[in-house]
Amino acid sequence: MNFFKKLFKSQIESSRNKEINKQEVNLSLDDSFVHNFINKGGKFLYCTSIKEVKNNLKHILQENNWKKITCSDYDLVKLTDKIDVNLQEHFSESIPFFTSCEHLISNKGELLFSSNQLGSNKLSSLPKHFIVYATTSQLVKNMGEGLTGIKTHFSGNIPTNISSITNYKIEADEDNFLSYGNTNSKNLYLLLFEDL
Predict the structure, then answer these.
(1) Each residue of 168-181: pLDDT tens digit?
(2) Lower CB count within 10 Å: N or C terminus of the chain?
(3) CB 196 within 8 A of CB 65
(4) Does residue 186 contact residue 168 with C-beta atoms inside 8 Å?
(5) Contact 186/129 with Cβ under 8 angstroms?
(6) DSSP string for residues in 104-145
(7) Predicted model pTM
(8) Cβ(43)–Cβ(129) under 8 Å?
């Protein structure tokens, strides 16, 4: 009799555990993004002030012993003042790229870029190291909302070259219709500024 109790008890506990694991967890946009982003190998730094953004940028550069970065966004160049780093406008494979992005895709943990950041360059032709500055107001639920956001924000002059970085480990590669033909795996640091 004791044997049957143990057998049925273990089956009941097993079915309870399965039910718990099946339950959907509803995370907020930012929590979902961070969870998915980190699971893909991204490095994430949350910032609550511009001073903190500058300080974290300085630490990223020191940690990796990077003395130069590529940056073509004049607003981002302001973040590098008082940091011992040389800036250049033209891309080089060995020099990290400091840029912004269009949107942060929460359900995939991906970053969405356009010609505003990449110009006419394919992701595969850009450096393998990225440092991205983004704000919490750029978070969207999915790729559809990201594309709609670009269309709405730039109505009349929609940017081209829309692609996303989907992997944050250099050796990883994943096909995606937005990055067909591109190697979109990058070693990526994200400086996320709380602006809401």
Answers:
(1) 887 644 555 544 55
(2) N
(3) no
(4) yes
(5) yes
(6) EETTTTEEEE-HHHHTT--GGGS-SEEEEEEEGGGEESSHHH
(7) 0.80
(8) no
